[in-house]
């Protein structure tokens, strides 16, 4: 007899996500549903606005991948009106994106995803001296992994345990049998978790050199950038380079080492050797290194075939809302897309103790739409970037992938797993950290003869325009689509990476990446569904930022009043 397990909300992500799975008698998932439970409507807010405000408003979609929507929205306007952008501005934008990627991936693995692999409770019983020896197996020069550092990390967390205030380590599935690190390996990972808190700050500071602040930088405008003095100040140039080097060193000595350690420890763990059940992967070109070269190229691969890749046809992109809380009678291309809310409630069932509402799989159950490419579900993200570029023979990518596969003994097919998806994000970061300064050097060289950062754009209110901005955000293929009429935004659609990955089943019965990734997964203990979190977190979900939540009956959970004197 089947049974259902609901995890709501999924924590350690950006936004609101509910996962519901149906288990058979052996605790194997045979059906899964991913539901984003909060509506925002930013696409509606954009209508009637001046195109020059698009980037600043759309970056408020997210405070994690903060500059992604800012840049993508600006590119959409520039594409629509055919604005010219100086090469220096393109370099600055690329450097912002480079540091964003490094920052975001480090935060994802250590702060959001790391505790799916690292059992903190086990780390408290580790021998720091043995852990220091263990760390040397994965890095010749470990960072924060000497016996003293490891003991200090252990004592710090033990102090939290002793006070009963566990903070980020509370309410986890510690002790789940699918944790595979030894106590000493767990202690290594725990120490690096703490170190990552410091490193992510430095990465954010590096981005702020060009963006003015982080999150939500302010320096990108239609036609260029505004950070002229930073670009021309030798002290600021050197500051950026030093911070970049510091973060890159962490990627080389820590992040890379920890994923190698995970690859060894989890090489035979069934729950991480699946989790990749769609066949099509897509990415865009990304990280401008010089006027003629990007670090990553764009493309699509089908059937997980690493021997060939094709170019993207934007006309093949559509969004289906059959099982999404929107009204549309057929799949829509983003240029003609609509955002018309049509919410329906979950249904009451007795299949879960305590009688709680569960998804009505025959109806609508998510605020996420279901994008399709040529009618097929697509996975996007660092895994897609790495496999597409591997298939296209991009040597900067094939070198880091082949190095990793050789050192771990894993076959290339292992990339198409939960373990592989997590490793691909590290490899993506590694390729960026090794080559990102090529953009910096290209800019410095160009400044000797050209210091232009802005070309004033024009919008004719008598003309109609349409345009698309496309970048590879930390979570994958991001596109913003808009139409301009009478000098104002007439229509706006943002098709974000998590939309591609988290969308519900479509009108043709085809399942998206999140839901497909869980089918066939066996849970060791349905009351502690760590395996589900590990798979879903490997995508790095980013659903939506919000300022309030409501329960399923629509009742307010909390109410806050601000005293007049505090306003």
TrEMBL record:
GO terms for cellular component: plasma membrane
Record-listed Fe cation binding positions: 65, 545
Reaction(s) the record says it catalyses: H2 + A = AH2
Binding, Ni(2+): 65, 542
GO molecular function, one term: nickel cation binding
Subcellular locations according to the entry: Cell membrane
Protein name (database record): Uptake hydrogenase large subunit
Originating organism: Photobacterium phosphoreum
